[in-house]
Amino acid sequence: MGAFVHVSLSLSQTWSAFTDLVCVCVCVIDPVYVWLSLMRVHVCVAEIQCPPHSHYEACGTACPASCAHSTDPLFCALACVESCQCDSGYILSGGDCVPRHQCGCSFLGSYYRTGDQLVTDTCSRRCTCPGGGKNITCNEHQECAIRHGVRDCHTIRTATCSASGDPHYRTFDGLPFDFQGTCRYTLSELCAPAADLTAFRVTVENERRGSTAVSWTRQVRVLVYGYQVQMTRGERGSVQVKAATNLPVTLASGNIRVHHSGSAAVLETDLGLRVSYDWSHYVTVTVPGTYMGSLCGLCGNFNGNVTDEFKSASGEMVSSPVLFGNSWKHGNESCPEEPELPSPQCTSEQRALYSSEQYCGALINATGPFQHCQSSMPSLSAFENCVFDLCASGEALSLCQALGAYALECQGRGIGISDWRNSTGCGKLAHHSRVCALVCVHACLYLCTSVSECACVCESLCVCVYLCVFARVCVCLSLLCVCVCVDSGFRAGLECQENSDYQVCGTSCPASCSRPGFPADCGTPCQEGCQCLDGYVLSAGRCVPPAQCGCLHRGQYRTPGESFWEDEACRSLCVCEPGSGRVRCRADACQEHEACRVVNGRRRCVPSAAVCVATGDPHYRTFDGRRYDFQGACTYVLVTACRGARDAPQFRVETHNREIPGRSVALVDRVAVVVYGHEILLSRDSLGRVKVDGLYANLPWSRAEGGLTVFRAGLYTHVRTDFGLEVGYDLRHHVWVSLHRRFAGRTCGLCGNYNGLPADDYITPNGTLVSSLHAFASSWKANVTEQCEHGCQGGSCPVCEHPQTYSGSQFCGIISHANGPFAACLSRLDPAPYLQDCVYDVCLAQGDRETLCQSLQAFASACQALNVSLSPWRNDSFCGVACPENSHYEVCGERDINRCVSLPTNTSSAPCAEGCFCDHGFRLSGEHCVPSTDCGCVHNGLYLQMGQSVLNQACTERCQCHAGGAVECVPLLCNAGQECGIRNGQMGCHDTFSICVVTGDPHYFSYDGALTHFQGTCEYQVSAVCHNLTLPWFRITTENRNRGNSLVSFIYRVHVGGQPVSLPAFPSLGVSVLVRDGTVVVQVGDNLEVRYDGASTLLLRVAQSYAGTLCGLCGNFNGNPADDKLLPDGQPASNDTHLGNSWRAEGGKAESRESECTDPPPGHRHPLCDVLTADPGPFAQCHWQVDPRHYYTSCVFDTCAYGMDRLTLCRAVGAYAAACALHGFQVSSWRNATDCREFTV
Fold first, then answer.
1. Where is region (Disordered) located (predicted)?
2. Contact call for residues 530 and 263 (beta carbons, < 8 A)
3. Of the four listed, 104, 343, 401, 926, which is most buried by Cβ atoms within 10 Å?
């Protein structure tokens, strides 16, 4: 070891960050280490952190040059010392290193820095460095005196305004009044500016706490000297100044000081302003007499006259506290004004109880703990306020708050009080007779658990929120829970933390890590509250030994181990090293797509956008984080730009919810995004494609002008814009909207207003804030003419009877399992709400595995959005994903690889996605993974799959994609009787009619393109006029029978009108029944044609005049396939069997059971049915007019039921050929391609 030299240096000599006295030992071996003693705690650190414009020297001059003594180094006889020395060109000025030209002044033997002021002995002149001065005179509210080491005209008189309890206000002039508004209000501010008065503003924000009749102060903001200091309920030991700041803190060059005093945070300024808040409900504002007559706000005008206090913000006198309070609502608060309502009234029994000495009577008891204060402080008004609060809430906590507020006011005036807490039950642990009142009526989801304030046991299974109330005033608010009290104390009063105890008269300037000597110069009276034990000091609200103190960095105290961003741009990340008192910083930065912002008082890297979610039944989470459930089954505005967003791109996102029969809940089954003049529709049948302005387009799709892209990544289809809007939908149940913060405070809809305040998200389209969830959500119905229901509300909503069954690890418990596949996410994302939603959905679905998988997927998606790497949570037997041919499942796949056409926007930096991804050597083409050589073409900005044809908007040209990306275009002319337009998402030459096909075992292809599999063996209504009295009426039914296989059925007889006839026949005018090429054709004028091949295929062709008027298994013919599967009462069917059985004709008895066969997975191929979709192939020319995908699905379905039966195959293919023929495409070569020549179909 090397030798050590011990030197003692005073803080003023080294101007370093050492406190009071720093003992320094210089180690003479490399590397250099410094041993220092901080409050008698010795630690070793690697280097000294010097102030700006200075550097560390192990052997520097002990007589540094200063502005006052610039030649000291020349005559210094002292040995060198280890210290910080000014850089070249800089010199000491009052402890700072400054350029020589910034030196200050010498006056009467003392040195003053630039900007310093001094007042002469008689307070007759104020001088400023550099140069200049002016005459001053102390006014009637001031005296010439030295306070805290400064001579000046100091205030003699002060006045205090207070707000306490629910809250009760007392103005500066002493007028008491009550006001229960729940907005942000101006408590006091300078309203009559004067040259010698510093402007300030104090605002308060109030909130409800259980009772809807009263409110309490939850936040106080003080704006002075350009700083905003925020004190918030529950954040004991800290305030927010741009970001959370541990106490104490000094700002504005010492003009603002904030410290911990008793049970409150106290802000003081050099101008005499003092604001305190107890982090619960009690706030005071004290101002010097110099502000007399210059203030306004809820604290009044401070003019000594109580008769003119109710002066509104507009300067008018008003008659009531409510009008007065509402007028001082701060800024453009969107919360509702407080109405004029009668105050809560006490019963005679309540008043008698609460007036006793064990309650509020302690305030007016002549021999009680406040006896010495009653002559100076009006105890009667405090007594009435106390009784009022208890009657309104019934909470023991209200009593303790009311008594505590009075105690602090007494002590603030220097009046002693005795221990009032133990005599009133407000001590550390109080024992009252009490019960638990249920105040949160919600669907029962979990086992009832007690909260910290109340020890209760619930006999039923409910989600409960409890308040501790007195037994005599308890009112049962719900019969859902029966609560039994356990005879143990509840925390209604003051409970001191570890290493502290309660003192009725303790220092109001407690010692802290950064100010260990604070009590020595404390000039304020003692206060009751918790005080650190001897040998302990405050560290951000906790009492710790000095050895466990943290760091002082740039005037702010940091706790040991605390990490923080040093700058406002998140470029320097620092940590307070435990035990050393040193802060170490390193260069760092937020990731891409993140922004440096203050969230919940902490500066951190956060996504540059907020996310709104609708998932499950559905459960909603707004941009501001408010969660709610709403089961409406209509189309709703999820989010739209509003409220001053005219300078930003306009957009609108709507969701359509479909009710799940028998469960009183709904699922999102369609999402529409309106942006940049386009309507983009995502629906359950749009895998691999999207409907843009009514036309289907393959994915990816991009706007020609740029700025808008639709693509698929894993399980989700994304709509992404260039201005920060992105929508994701899994085409099943889960939709999310990510929106840039430029829209903060400028959105509306079910996603809320995006202003950071969850409490005010329930705003209706007319701008009204409502308390009813149902009123809020139903008000955002997008189409007022839509016939639909808004679902259950309140107690009518379904309840999970056995939540514990589904909260275990076999079901939803996997979400929060510490060793489960989501373990890595539990520290980043609170799993509780996802677990709650999962239990509710799975419970109502009676343990349905698909519902469970959907809930788990929602949590997995949220985790991956945070870049959390998840373990594989799916397998073949649990939540497996059926991937198309030539693809595989990945839990974390790259978004932008293996596509036939790349995206115009880079997604490589986005989080990975879960889902199906193409195998090596294959690329994504629409919904299929194809060899690279089979990729399609890009034509006019649209991606076409190999062989796909499209028409231009005038139907004068048809273009087809060929191998190698070549597009061939040929002229086109619509046939007579056809019209050019969009039908079922396809641009084409369409007949002036639509077709429904019933074929096979059987399958129903609706007019709008929906597919239904139904094997009932009865008589069923296929189509009929249901919603029109002017069009010619018709009804078509089919009778289905089994043919050798009980799993399926076929059409046996067709009825038109019900009368048998010989063919050809003409039963009435305009009606003919003929046989053409072995097919029975019924023609009803120009409006209806029915064709039956006598074996397995029925085709209906109806005119467009019937659009929207039909019902039955062929759908409603309104152009929307998503709502074709409706029951006779207009409600959606739960499945195809439910739909088919509901349309059983009169007299039918047999009901179908669900088939064992299901639709093939997306992209599945079957060799017997491939002829339908083959391109090139016999049907290729018909694909653009009649979508072959449903016919292919039905073909595979039939081969499941009948195996490889050739006749079944030929009938399935023949049905598509017949549909093509109705559209003018005569296809004959298909029989040769399928060996169906020998079969008559």
1. 1125-1162
2. yes
3. 401
Q: Supply 305's token pair.
A: 């006259």
Distance CA(950)–CA(987), nearest Å, equals 7
Mean pLDDT in residue range 553-561: 86
* Close Cβ partners of 54 (under 8 Å, ≥ 6 residues apart): 84, 85, 86, 87, 90, 97
Burial 776-797 (b: 16+ CB within 10 A, else e): bbbbbbbeeeeebebbbbeeeb
What does the alpha-carbon distance between residue 674 and residue 600 come to, in Å, rounded to a whole number? 33
Distance CA 1158, CA 578 (A): 63
Rounded Cα distance, 922 and 1021, in Å: 45
Tell me which long-range contacts 25-28 makes (C-beta under 8 A, separation of at least 24): 26/58, 26/59, 26/82, 27/2, 28/2, 28/3, 28/4
Name the pTM for this structure: 0.51
Identify the CA nearest to 682 among candidates 656, 662, 660.
656
Residue 700 near residue 680, CB atoms below 8 Å: no
Torsion angle in degrees (nearest 10) through CA of 9, 14, 18, 20: 60
Nearest to 750 by CA among 654, 667, 651: 654
- Containing 640, the helix (H) or strand (E) segment is strand 635-641
Q: First vs last Cα of the chain: how many Å apart?
A: 103
Residue 1194, classed as helix, strand or coil, is: helix
Q: Both tokens of residue 629?
A: 């459930």
CB 289 within 8 Å of CB 159: yes
Provide DSSP, 583-603: EEEEE--PPTTEEEEEETTEE
**pLDDT value for 1069:** 81
Q: Which of 853, 1133, 674, 673 is nearest to 683 (CA)?
A: 673
Tell me, what amino acid is at 951?
L
Which phi and psi (to 5°) does residue 933 adopt? -70, -15
Radius of gyration of the chain (CA): 39
Kind and range of the H or E run holding 458? strand 456-458
DSSP H or E segment with residue 109: none
How far, CA to CA in Å, does 70 sit from each of 82, 93, 778?
Answer: 20, 10, 77
**Distance between CA atoms of residues 552 and 249, nearest Å:** 10
Q: From the options 1.10.10.10, 3.30.40.10, 2.10.25.10, 3.40.50.12160, give the CATH code of 4-103.
A: 2.10.25.10
Q: Do domains 4-103 and 500-549 have the same CATH topology?
A: yes
Respond yes or no on whether the N-terminal peptide bond of residue 321 is cis (omega within 30° of 0): no
Tell me 572's DSSP state: E
Q: Which CATH class is domain 500-549?
A: mainly beta
d(CA 447, CA 538): 39
Taking residues 735-749, report their average pLDDT.
Answer: 91
Residue 1237 or residue 1226, greater confidence: 1226
Identify whether the C-beta of residue 735 lies closer than 8 Å to the C-beta of residue 623.
no
| Widest CA span in the chain | 134
**CA dist., res. 629 & res. 773, Å (int):** 9
Q: Which helix (H) or strand (E) element contains residue 983?
A: strand 978-983
Q: Position 316: which residue type?
A: E
Q: Where are the domains of the chain?
A: 4-103, 117-151, 157-327, 348-424, 434-485, 500-549, 608-796, 803-880, 937-971, 978-1142, 1170-1234
Contact 930, 886 (CB under 8 A): yes
Other C-beta atoms lying within 10 Å of the C-beta of residue 636: 27
pLDDT in tens, 1185-1231: 777 877 887 787 777 766 666 777 787 788 888 778 777 777 766 77
In total, the chain counts a number of residues equal to 1241
- What is the per-residue pLDDT across 1119-1142, written as a single tens digit (0 to 9) for each? 888 889 999 988 888 888 999 999
- The H helix count followed by the E strand count for the chain is 14, 82
d(CA 636, CA 786) in angstroms, rounded, equals 11
- For tokens 């090139």, what's the residue? 1176
Question: 502 is written with which tokens?
Answer: 């309660």
